[in-house]
Amino acid sequence: MKTLSSIPEIRLSKPLLAVIALIAVCLHPMSMADETKLELVDSKKKHLVSLPAIETSRNIPLQLENSKITIVTFFASWCPPCLDEFQALNTVKTQLGDKITIVAVNAFEAFDSNDEARMQKFLEATDPSFPLVKGNDETLALFGNVNRIPTLYVFDRHGKQAFNFIHARGATKRSVDAEELTKALQPLL
Predict the structure, then answer these.
(1) What are the structural domains of the chain?
(2) Total-model pTM
């Protein structure tokens, strides 16, 4: 049996230790970026309100009030899980009405003639009961460099992130459902 004194000592240089630590962080299932909670501060609200609206049959104006629970979701008309998520958002908006604000951001389409036709089909299929806006690269950066859709954030009355859903590549769960969203919202009401 070997004792500790018989095991050869391994010396690692500081650069090698740094590389090993970096690899460990990158391979960890919950990266540091995932642990960072977003806040819906005034500058983000002003940015969202400044974005061009996407016309819908309801044309609901975007008003982000302080002291109100706010849901911000990122979507695209070509995203099948986004159809399901919009149905869930409509259900929750019907249930909770003015207690919540929902804004849907589309920063993933060029809004050329092909995108416009596809968007109209998406809007006809989902009939959103909340405002939609055309986002941009700045919008994506303000909300943690969004690169997956649907991505949804719930902010409490103080602008603190209380819940989020990000569709992971290859995941079986593709979007948040109304029951899950309602459960996340109940403690905030």
Answers:
(1) 36-188 (3.40.30.10)
(2) 0.80
